[in-house]
């Protein structure tokens, strides 16, 4: 601050002092001060990122600040429903809650019946057709072992210290402070859950905060639901998660083409795999193309009956499967709109009948299990690279017509699999890209899948 003040003093003096040497001094001082400020700012940003509990979020916050993008929360004052503007705050929050609770039903009702040619719709198959076709081995049944006080203690220690909380208004910070006094009863309840196959009902309630994405601020579809579960729920879910993941890893069940939500794997690995496959095919004088798929609300559209059947297929049976059924059933959400730091408007509780819980520990793992058989369906003509629900499929061939035919065949298989698993492929945001070199720039094709692609 003193240096900036001194710079202003020099500038004011320079207006009356025409000495060239004094002007040079001012310029040099300004450059030096600018360099010092930049370095100080960088050091401060580095410190913020280093000590942040969410480094990616902090980094993007800094980037948005530097490029001038607003990071402030959009105040929700009204919504437009069927052309009618609602500004009563209780009605507004109620419409948001209804949208978030029923979005999957709406998507499934509007799945394009023409996404599979009419003459082929009779040939659609059940999702188990793909499971039985592509998985030969039967997997041993899992048996969840009991939790221990030490395990509960380590889970609580691993929770990120946050002030945010679920409907019970108990943050992870408070939970950590209280942990020495409550570890024993928590461990007792966890073991009762594992033995009985029943997930506690009071841990199935989530608070939803609408987060604006883009577009019309009156349109509820332009908001993303940010879900807040209780901190206690994360303890119980982690107990189940570690045992399930151990079983999946022990028998190498998860597909190697899946890079999302897996320890030691990240987007860099998926991108490296994608680019390596493309470059290798080009070096082998092959024609290369990729199909990049977009699914509509994939996590929200997970069918519980299908998921439970797949869990059983992979060896999660009996009371352990019943525990997952209990975990998925009777879940409720309530949307909350913050008017300021003090006042909030809350909706009624609504039941969620499908999808995996957002903001949960188990949700991502359950989704990986749900789509685990997809890569085996695609491996015949292509190389799939999947990150959670983002599905990229690479094709290569020496002949342009065969390449085009393989792409079309795979899209048909892909779309049938999605429909069998009650997921919706968004053709408007699904794209086919041909990767060319100078030698193959004249080799071009078009894909037309039932006028949708």
TrEMBL record:
InterPro entries: DNA/RNA_pol_sf, RT_dom
Descriptive protein name: Reverse transcriptase domain-containing protein
GO biological process: DNA biosynthetic process
Superkingdom field: Eukaryota
Domain Reverse transcriptase: 192-453
SUPFAM superfamilies, sorted: DNA/RNA polymerases
CDD domains the record matches: RT_nLTR_like
PROSITE patterns: RT_POL (PS50878)
Transmembrane portions of the chain: none
């Amino acid at each position: 601050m003193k240096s900036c003040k001194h710079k202003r003093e020099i500038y004011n003096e320079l207006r009356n002092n025409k000495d060239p040497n004094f002007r040079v001094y001012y310029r040099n001082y300004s450059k030096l001060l600018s360099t010092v400020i930049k370095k100080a700012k960088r050091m401060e940003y580095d410190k913020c990122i280093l000590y942040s509990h969410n480094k990616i979020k902090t980094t993007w916050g800094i980037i948005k600040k530097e490029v001038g993008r607003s990071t402030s929360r959009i105040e929700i004052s009204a919504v437009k429903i069927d052309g009618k503007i609602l500004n009563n705050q209780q009605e507004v929050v109620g419409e948001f809650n209804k949208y978030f609770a029923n979005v999957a039903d709406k998507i499934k009702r509007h799945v394009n019946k023409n996404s599979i040619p009419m003459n082929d719709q009779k040939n659609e198959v059940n999702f188990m057709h793909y499971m039985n076709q592509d998985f030969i081995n039967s997997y041993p049944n899992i048996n969840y072992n009991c939790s221990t006080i030490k395990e509960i203690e380590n889970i609580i220690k691993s929770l990120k210290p946050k002030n945010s909380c679920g409907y019970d208004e108990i943050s992870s910070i408070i939970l950590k402070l209280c942990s020495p006094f409550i570890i024993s009863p928590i461990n007792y309840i966890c073991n009762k859950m594992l033995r009985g196959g029943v997930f506690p009902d009071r841990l199935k309630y989530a608070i939803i905060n609408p987060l604006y994405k883009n577009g019309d601020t009156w349109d509820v579809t332009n908001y993303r639901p940010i879900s807040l579960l209780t901190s206690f729920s994360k303890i119980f879910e982690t107990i189940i998660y570690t045992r399930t993941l151990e079983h999946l890893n022990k028998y190498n069940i998860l597909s190697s083409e899946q890079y999302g939500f897996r320890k030691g794997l990240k987007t860099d690995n998926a991108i490296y795999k994608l680019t390596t496959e493309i470059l290798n095919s080009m070096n082998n004088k092959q024609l290369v193309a990729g199909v990049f798929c977009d699914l509509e609300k994939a996590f929200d559209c997970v069918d519980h009956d299908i998921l439970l059947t797949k869990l059983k297929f992979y060896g999660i049976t009996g009371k352990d499967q019943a525990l997952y059924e209990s975990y998925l059933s009777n879940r409720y959400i309530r949307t909350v709109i913050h008017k300021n730091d003090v006042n909030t408007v809350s909706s009624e509780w609504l039941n969620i009948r499908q999808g995996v819980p957002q903001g949960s520990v188990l949700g991502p793992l359950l989704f990986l299990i749900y789509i685990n058989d997809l890569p085996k369906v695609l491996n015949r003509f292509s190389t799939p690279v999947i990150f959670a629900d983002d599905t990229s499929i690479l094709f290569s061939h020496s002949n342009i017509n065969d390449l085009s035919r393989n792409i079309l065949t795979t899209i048909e298989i892909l779309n049938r699999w999605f429909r069998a698993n009650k997921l919706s492929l968004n053709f408007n945001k699904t794209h086919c890209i041909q990767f060319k070199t100078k030698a193959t720039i004249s080799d071009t094709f078009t894909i037309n899948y039932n006028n949708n692609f």
